[in-house]
Design goal:
Order of helices and strands: HHEHEEHEHHEEHEEHHHHEHEEEEEHH
CATH topology of the largest domain: Alkaline Phosphatase, subunit A
Strand order of the largest sheet: 6-5-9-1-10-13-4-14
Strand content: 5-15%
Number of strands: 14
Number of helices: 14
Radius of gyration: 23 Å
Length: 429
């Protein structure tokens, strides 16, 4: 194995990521206070609700007492023993309320309806969990397409040590996979080496990429490569150790608790303020894949909104970088794989339905409104993509339109990332 001053691959691994050159990001790290001189930071948190939720329980309002419209909102009271739901409007936003079965939904909207948009009626084109998750996040089944959280990271935080942080769940890096890292337990374990049973060190895929690029830089020097081949790499190598030390230090102090909204808000706000990352994805709730007894959806929705209420309230209490609080600098997007069929099946449950709903809150979100709608078959209707209102001259929104709109919401030019796709911007303030 070639060496330079004793720096072999094994040596790089042994000293850990705190001394390995982070040559994968050959640019100087900007502090957020420097960024603030030119533009406001814009952070993103994407929360996934695994399994395919039933949005008419909360987000997509249909009359619970109308048995002729082809949509079953509740399991009949005679069977469930539970009181029926009812539409409720707060700060201009209408949602499905049931204080008995989903009290935390009401608590959330009482506190945050004015900064929340509900988006209904976009086509996901699939009832496969894996495919629909990919479609909802990227707008495509193209394996080279990044998801909107990673695209946002590329636009808003490309100079940070870890532009996109995957806490849990699914993410698609596409052409920008080098910007994303997965958190497993403490991030230090992800970034630094550990020893396998045979005594040899191992690193994560992210760490391995950094090491390989550091070694490539050393190889070029060893082989006497012409200056043009290594032009610009020396400053990056000099800067790498400082950034690596910062990354390891930040990783050791990041304590993610994704089960408690206030704790999660404090952890992510700290990560944002410290300059670790700009975009975060996590699996916030699961268990929505309930094919029998649709009353099981109640507890899933209630738990999700308990987390969401604590999270937004927590962000509102956290100091921002430029704005008074972190919620004013953060967009939160909550989504699921797909929805569930409009009618109950023979087991009083619901099956997979290839349409989607989302909830958006925070920075640049047009709060207090519902955009898009579904018909009596719970299929999406034609809307004006700029207003979200029904329009015969409009189109039935596709998930690709939604993803392009989310990229726009995060401040990027959608045509840069999704050329030829019309962005759905009705939820952008």
């Amino acid at each position: 194995m070639w060496t330079r001053d004793g720096w072999t691959r094994r040596r790089l691994l042994q000293v850990g990521m705190a001394s390995a050159a982070l040559a994968a990001t050959p640019w100087p790290m900007r502090r957020w206070n420097a960024l603030a001189a030119n533009a406001e930071p814009h952070f993103l948190v994407v929360m996934l609700a695994d399994g395919g939720w039933d949005p008419i329980q909360v987000l997509d309002v249909h009359d619970p007492l109308d048995n002729t419209d082809g949509v079953d909102v509740d399991v009949p009271q005679a069977i469930s023993g539970l009181p029926p739901s009812a539409p409720r409007t707060v700060a201009g936003l209408t949602y499905q309320s049931n204080p008995t079965t989903r009290p935390n939904v009401d608590l959330y909207f009482n506190a945050h309806a004015g900064r929340t948009t509900i988006l209904n009626g976009f086509a996901t084109h699939s009832t496969s969990h894996s495919q629909s998750t990919q479609l909802t996040l990227t707008g495509s089944l193209d394996p080279t397409r990044a998801d909107f959280a990673v695209m946002s990271a590329h636009h808003n935080g490309v100079t940070l040590p870890l532009p996109h942080l995957l806490v849990s769940g699914s993410s698609f890096g596409g052409a920008y996979s080098g910007l994303s890292g997965r958190l497993g337990g403490q991030m230090r374990r992800v970034l630094e080496y550990s020893r396998l049973d045979d005594g040899h060190p191992a690193v994560s895929a992210l760490g391995e990429a950094y090491v390989q690029q550091a070694l490539e830089y050393e190889r070029l020097l060893d082989e006497g490569a012409p200056p043009s081949a290594i032009s610009g790499k020396l400053p990056a190598a000099v800067d790498a150790k400082e950034r690596a030390d910062k990354l390891a230090q930040l990783a050791s102090t990041l304590n993610i608790n994704s089960n408690d909204g206030a704790s999660l808000a404090a952890s992510l706000a700290g990560a944002f303020r410290s300059g670790l990352t700009t975009s975060v994805t996590l699996n916030a709730a699961g268990g929505f894949d309930t094919h029998g007894d649709n009353t099981q959806q109640n507890a899933r929705w209630d738990g999700l909104f308990m987390l969401l209420n604590g999270f937004l309230t927590g962000l509102q209490a956290e100091p921002g970088i430029v704005r008074p609080n972190m919620l004013a600098e953060t967009t939160v997007v909550v989504c699921s794989d797909f929805s569930r069929t409009p009618l109950l099946n023979n087991d009083n449950g619901k099956d997979h339905h290839p349409w989607g709903s989302m909830l958006l809150a925070g920075k640049r979100v047009r709060g207090g409104v519902t955009v898009g709608m579904t018909d009596d078959n719970q299929d999406g209707m034609k809307v004006n993509l700029a207003t979200g209102n029904p329009s015969q001259a409009g189109i039935v929104p596709d998930v690709s339109n939604v993803v392009a709109g989310l990229v726009t919401l995060m401040g990027a030019n959608a045509s840069t990332y999704l050329p030829g796709v019309l962005p759905y911007t009705a939820f952008v303030a």
